[in-house]
Design a protein that fits this description.
Blueprint: H1 2-50, H2 58-61, H3 64-72, H4 82-85, H5 92-106, H6 114-148, H7 153-164, H8 166-171, H9 177-191, H10 218-237, H11 242-254, H12 266-295, H13 301-311, H14 325-335, H15 339-348, H16 359-379, H17 394-409, E1 410-412, E2 424-426, H18 429-448, H19 453-468, E3 491-495, H20 505-508, E4 514-517, H21 531-535, H22 539-545, H23 547-554, E5 565-571, H24 575-582, E6 596-601, E7 616-620, H25 623-626
Parallel strand pairs: 3-4, 3-5
Antiparallel strand pairs: 1-2, 5-7, 6-7
Helix pairs in contact: 1-6, 3-5, 5-6, 6-7, 6-9, 6-17, 7-17, 9-10, 10-12, 11-16, 15-17, 16-17, 22-23, 23-24
Length: 632
């Protein structure tokens, strides 16, 4: 009896020890994950501060301008593009940044000095987007741990690739909807139950279904719900995101190329169907309500988006690309130095017979490859293409490349004893360092030097406005603004650049700082392929076709009052046209303007638009220094 009692106690003690060890292991994993998130957020915050260049207008005009308008009102000077006037965009994305503006506006009763508030308003979107970028990297790493194992070299390489990827450094902290879509996609993929694609064969040849249960606990079902909710928001934000989930769903149902047993019993299928309907309806309801509050009427932006950009083909108005654009430029730009490993991962993921991965991992990698193939194929049929449209594929790229990056640059040392664990070593170190150096050079140049002038010029104009009109820096502007001797709400800046070539109110900040820029509204009234669309010329094209002629239209002789600008902004190639117009024998001689070059900045080694070649220049007209401005 005594011996049996001791054995029982020993067994209980052993069980308790195993439970405690397991609990301790989970605790260590949680702490490690939390610490990693803190480090990644710190890196992305530094990243956000270092990015001081202009990339694409949507960073500002599809996020920050509507957010600014939402917080500060219609009289705040925010520029709402045609997409917002025709309800093509979901209000969810700008509402997030509006929350950041709202916090700054109401911090301590909004008693901070205007110039201090302006700095915080500039910083708020950067902090928020740094958080989203960090979550994208972190969830990509967590998904890699699910597939390759916690603490595995392949999983860690996913995080490191994300942090040193120059495209990520250049774009992830920018307020693009594509960047937020990438974050939502990475999170949704992490919570997705990859077991639905197939599990290990249980040896029962009579059944095509696995005996390993799924959706047996509330935790599993809640993860499915969270994945579906995040995916639904991503689809509402960018309708093309549906391609990702259609690919995964199609593969789960058809089981093409998949291995193992399918767990999609009737019960599990009905659970997934129920949750898709429930979560989709929930997100759709929230979206409809949010857009109803924002637009003032019931509307469904994704449907309008598809109508204008696909059915009406208005996206092509902003440029067309070759069918192979994403293959020849998109993937290489996203992957840069790891592109060969991405291609290797895409190819090897289809080789199921020689795969050493567990069934769940092997099937998940095939699904991620299928997602890449279907997205690239479908988007290649759309005439207007941009690299950022496939940015949500980056988590898949990094995960697919991870094993091959790891095996190429690392090695496991020989194990000397049964109790010792393998030690990770490095190989091809010079090549690794060279690749990292290339990434640093590319990321550093693009983030700090390339097309930096558009950011610098709005900062310069804002600073000039602060010096010239220190009494009119209220944010928001008072409804009963008074016109005094030193201020008459003059047109402070006129931008004669390609449309949307600089940030707007999110960087000009002060509502009293009036500015005007060339527009480029698409021909909404025309049909695809019509002669009207072919000959249509927007304001920007008309200006560059005949600069002096456009200036005559801008300031016609018979106008009751001339809205002359204090500063004119443009690339240096428009200088001759300006001096010709304002010369003593030119059509603008009556303005008595003597242009003076007061600021200019280098804009990078190359440009994708010849109209942006050369230095960006600010000319002072001197108009308000010599002539009393006409009251509006």
């Amino acid at each position: 009896m005594s011996s049996g009692k001791k054995k029982t106690n020993a067994g209980a003690s052993s069980s308790t020890t195993r439970t405690a060890a397991k609990s301790h292991g989970i605790s260590l994993i949680t702490v490690r994950a939390r610490d990693a998130l803190a480090v990644v957020f710190t890196v992305r915050l530094i990243n956000a501060v270092c990015v001081r260049t202009f990339f694409q207008p949507d960073e500002y005009f599809q996020a920050l301008e509507p957010a600014w308008n939402l917080v500060f009102g219609e009289d705040s000077g925010a520029w709402l593009t045609w997409e917002w006037k025709h309800q093509l965009r979901s209000s969810i994305h700008p509402t997030i940044f509006a929350f950041g503006y709202w916090i700054v506006q109401h911090f301590e009763g909004s008693g901070m000095p205007p110039m201090t508030k302006a700095k915080w308003l500039l910083a708020a979107p950067k902090v928020l987007q740094a958080g989203f970028a960090a979550l994208s990297d972190w969830y990509s790493w967590r998904l890699a741990e699910r597939l390759y194992g916690p603490g595995s070299a392949a999983a860690w390489s996913v995080l490191l690739m994300a942090l040193v990827n120059p495209w990520q450094w250049y774009t992830s902290t920018r307020t693009f909807s594509n960047c937020f879509e990438t974050t939502l996609t990475a999170m949704a993929l992490y919570y997705w139950p990859w077991e639905v694609l197939g599990t290990e064969d249980d040896g029962n040849a009579e059944s095509k279904y696995s005996s390993i249960p799924i959706f047996q606990t509330w935790s599993q079902i809640n993860n499915l719900r969270l994945s579906l909710i995040l995916a639904a928001f991503a689809v509402l934000l960018r309708p093309t995101n549906v391609l990702i989930w259609a690919a995964i769903g199609t593969l789960a149902v058809t089981r093409a190329t998949l291995t193992g047993k399918s767990p999609l019993t009737l019960r599990n299928f009905l659970i997934i169907y129920r949750e898709v309907v429930f979560c989709g309806s929930f997100v759709l309801g929230l979206s409809l309500l949010a857009d109803r509050l924002y637009y003032g009427e019931w509307t469904f932006p994704p449907l309008t988006f598809l109508h204008f950009n696909v059915a009406q083909d208005l996206a092509s108005f902003y440029g067309e690309n070759d069918w192979h654009y994403y293959l020849s430029q998109g993937i290489p730009l996203l992957g840069t130095t790891i592109t060969p490993f991405i291609l290797q991962g895409l190819y090897r993921s289809l080789d199921s017979e020689n795969s050493n991965w567990p069934v769940v991992t092997s099937n998940a990698l095939k699904a991620l490859s299928f997602v890449v193939f279907t997205n690239i194929s479908a988007l290649s049929f759309v005439s207007h293409k941009e690299v950022r449209f496939i940015t949500p594929l980056l988590p898949a790229f990094h995960i697919l490349a991870a094993p091959y990056v790891t095996s190429f640059f690392t090695t496991l040392t020989n194990v000397t004893s049964a109790s010792s664990s393998p030690t990770l070593g490095w190989k091809r170190t010079p090549l690794l360092l060279a690749g990292l150096l290339v990434n640093v050079i590319i990321g550093g140049y693009l983030s700090y030097f390339h097309a930096a002038a558009p950011i610098k010029v709005v900062n310069y104009l804002r600073s000039e406005f602060e010096n010239i009109h220190p009494k009119h820096l209220a944010i928001p502007q008072s409804a009963n603004i008074t016109v005094d001797e030193d201020f008459a709400q003059e047109l402070f800046a006129l931008f004669l650049t390609p449309c949307h070539a600089t940030p707007w109110r999110s960087h000009l900040v002060y509502p009293a700082l009036r500015a005007r820029a060339l527009t480029c509204e698409p021909p909404l009234h025309t049909s695809p392929g019509s002669l009207q669309r072919q000959v249509y010329q927007d304001e920007t094209r008309r200006f560059y076709a005949d600069k002096v002629g456009f200036l005559k239209e801008l300031w016609p002789r018979d106008a009751p009052g001339e809205d002359m600008a204090r500063y004119i902004v443009g690339y240096e190639d428009i200088g001759p046209a300006l001096f010709e117009y304002f010369s003593s024998i030119g059509p603008g001689a009556r303005h008595k303007v003597e242009l003076k070059r007061v600021w200019d900045s280098w804009n990078g080694l190359f440009t994708d638009d010849d109209r942006k070649a050369g230095r960006l220049v600010v000319w002072a007209t001197g108009f308000y220094d010599t002539v009393s401005p006409i009251e509006p």
